Amino acid sequence: MNSSAAALALLGGVAFALMALLGLFVRRGAWAIDPWAARVLFGHGVPAAIAFTRSGYARSIGVQLVILALLAFVFQRGLVEVAVLGLSQSSGQIAINHVLKPFFARARPEEFHYRRERSPAYPSGHAATGVVFYGGIALLAPYAFHGQPLAIETVRIAACLWGLGLIWSRVALGAHYATDVLGGLLFGLGWAAEALALSHFGGISV
Questions:
Q1: Under 8 Å between Cβ of 121 and 28
Q2: What is the DSSP letter of 145?
Q3: What does the pLDDT read at residue 1?
Q4: pLDDT digits (tens, 9 = 90+) for 137-151
């Protein structure tokens, strides 16, 4: 393992540890930041928040992966990277939904817009998707637009902004507490770092 991969693996381990510690702390109840974030964000921009949230569900992610795979096939570049992105996204969501959420078993906020989520709240799978999937698209940009710096930066900025919108939407809709989102961000960072450490994504300059 080279030094870059080792650093990524260490970063991932730290992120996972922080996610676990936060989860153990908040499973007993809301943290001080949660009611403050709800007052600031909840109920604002609901139509936009719904659009962002819908883009983070499995069906939408699947459609986006198919489109990315077709584009990679047509342009004959980045197909392996798209496959790694899909594997990282799907395996991360399995870990969240079938291991972490049942373990922490945190109840969701009482007030909500759009739909009542049935699964436990911590950590937020949408927040993890904002990091792993949309951050992954930002990493794939150099493969899709090789030699076109303006296109690369445009895709990177758009993917990062969409990921942030997805993360914001979960508190705006009352689907999660802010600490659920923070836990999802930490998990996503850890999962992405470990995926980069284990794959040739580790050589991409972000």
A1: no
A2: T
A3: 57
A4: 998 888 777 778 888
CB count, 10 Å around CB of 197? 21
Which bin fits 113, alpha (ψ -120 to 50), beta or left (φ > 0)? beta
Q: How many helices (H) and strands (E) does the chain have?
A: 9, 0
Q: Which has more confidence, 149 or 186?
A: 186
Of 174, 191, 145, 182, the residue nearest 44 (C-alpha): 174
Residue 118 to residue 134: CA distance in whole angstroms: 24
> In this structure, are residues 93 and 124 in contact, taking their beta carbons and an 8 Å threshold?
no
Among all chains, which residue has been given the structure tokens 């961000």? 185
Q: Which residue carries 């489109």 as its tokens?
A: 67
Closest CA to 116 of 167, 62, 176, 56: 176
| Separation of CA 62 from chain center | 14
